[in-house]
Specification:
The chain is mainly beta and about 170 residues long. It is about 5% helix and about 55% strand. It has one domain: Immunoglobulin-like. The two termini are about 30 Å apart.
């Protein structure tokens, strides 16, 4: 099953392909968004992610698309995001992506941190041509910030995907 938000060590191989003679060159063309909305998942494994609001990211499995929507209930326990595929070559080659989630003003304020965060960032490796998943799970009351949330995926200095969701109080 697809895994999300696992952090992996940065390697040149993930960014540029193998430096060995005769090795194929890594080519990342774009990201295709397959679906978006509200999801359910299980098997969450928390890993350290210092650039995120919570300080952790999650690996999840058993992902189910519940509803196609961009309007998300702003309440604890809700998980939202999108499935995507990296388009390029060679098939199944590992690529290192940079994920950014931009929060609505005034940002997200984790009580364990001094200042609110305007955005959350982390890196993650995925494979070309294999469906993957980017989401955010509202696990704590301080994460429930109504307004427009923008999720971006970058490869180097190129933004390859962007999805915006509106969290509304129920």
């Amino acid at each position: 099953m697809v895994k999300l938000s696992a952090l992996f060590a940065s390697t040149l191989l993930a960014l540029y392909g193998s430096a060995e003679p005769g090795a194929q060159t890594l080519n990342v063309d774009r990201i295709d968004v397959l679906e978006h909305g509200i999801y359910t998942s299980s098997g969450s494994n928390q890993v350290a992610a210092p650039g995120t609001a919570a300080g952790t990211a999650s690996e999840v499995g058993d992902i189910h698309h519940a509803t196609t929507t961009r309007t998300i209930p702003a309440q604890e326990g809700v998980e939202f995001g999108f499935r995507y595929t990296v388009v390029g070559a060679p098939a199944r080659a590992e690529v290192r992506l940079h994920f950014v989630t931009i929060f609505p003003p005034p940002g997200m304020h984790n009580p364990a941190k001094r200042e609110p965060q305007a955005q959350s960032e982390y890196d993650h490796s995925t494979q070309i041509g294999v469906a993957a998943y980017k989401s955010y799970s509202l696990r704590n009351d301080w994460e429930v910030v109504p307004g427009n949330w923008t999720m971006q995926i970058w490869y180097g200095d190129r933004k390859l995907a962007e999805q915006t969701f509106t969290l509304v109080k129920q």
